[in-house]
Specification:
The protein is α/β, with parallel strands linked by helices. It has seven helices and eight strands; from the N terminus they run ααββαββαβααβαββ. It has helices at 8-14, 27-37, 78-85, 122-132, 148-157, 180-189, 203-210, and strands at 49-53, 70-75, 91-94, 107-113, 133-144, 195-201, 219-222, 228-234. The structure holds S-adenosylmethionine.
Length: 236
């Protein structure tokens, strides 16, 4: 398995003031967070816990306001967690997503946005996400597929074009991209039948963003899951 750069988390600490910059290098994560929120179900009980793993600067937080969840975030970047604590998270904690400090079957909704592609063993993380998920609870993951198309788009194009919202070079390592079949199989082994859906930025809104006519680009569904995709499933 490929190694993670030792300075990977420190990089996110250094980027912490960029989380909420609509034209900064983390901006597309905000667009994806808005799309992710559309998959969050109504809570079965008021105040049930939604755990957002690798929550970063908390871009998901505002989209959960008023839904009735107690929103908890974990990440390894302390500077990012400080941001999350100011943006709609009820509690944040420093924790490694490979070893979550939560009891088995204790969480109603577990979300993992744009993080499986940054760990050595994403399938072990999915084991962990499913471990803490309650029966009847919902798992939502979004990540990048291990395809040539994803390598071309997410690295060759997105990390190299001088465009606003471009992540820093070296953010992605294609060897860490996620195999969809294996992801499905691992989740299924825990009773979570994931349905996959592709996501891409709206082309017309993307042009408007580049022309500075708008500050956000909606993500739209696409049949192909070969680049960016979301997986949603309920634990039986
Ligand atoms: C691309 S950002 C995604 C942040 C957030 N989920 C979002 O979509 O805006 C990746 C995040 O994963 C965190 N991260 C990477 N490896 C981690 C690990 N092993 N445990 C906890 N957090 C991790 C980083 O600190 C960073 O905040």
């Amino acid at each position: 398995m490929p190694e993670i750069r030792s300075d990977f988390i420190t990089d996110y600490d250094g980027l912490a003031d960029k989380w909420w910059d609509p034209r900064g290098s983390l901006a597309p994560l905000g667009w994806i967070a808005r799309a992710r929120a559309t998959f969050v179900p109504e809570p079965r009980t008021e105040g049930a816990t939604l755990l957002d793993v690798a929550c970063g600067g908390g871009l998901f937080g505002p989209h959960l306001a008023g839904k009735g969840y107690r929103v908890v975030g974990v990440d390894l970047s302390i500077m990012s967690l400080k941001q999350a604590g100011q943006h709609g998270f009820d509690a944040v904690a420093k924790a490694d997503i490979t070893r979550l400090p939560f009891a088995d079957e204790s969480i109603e909704v577990v979300t993992a946005g744009q993080c499986l592609e940054h760990v050595r063993d994403p399938y072990a993380v999915v084991d962990e996400l499913c471990r803490v998920l309650r029966p009847g609870g919902t798992l939502i993951v979004d990540t990048i597929a291990d395809t040539k198309a994803a390598r071309l788009m997410a690295i060759t194009v997105v990390e190299n074009l001088p465009l606003p919202g471009r992540p820093p070079k070296g953010t992605h390592d294609h060897r860490l991209f996620v195999n969809r079949e294996r992801l499905l199989a691992v989740a299924r082994s825990h009773g979570v039948e994931l349905k996959l859906l592709g996501l891409r930025p709206s082309f017309s809104a993307g042009l408007g963003y580049l022309a500075r006519k708008r500050d956000e680009v909606p993500m739209v569904p696409t049949r192909s899951t070969a680049v960016l995709f979301v997986g949603v499933g309920t634990k039986s």
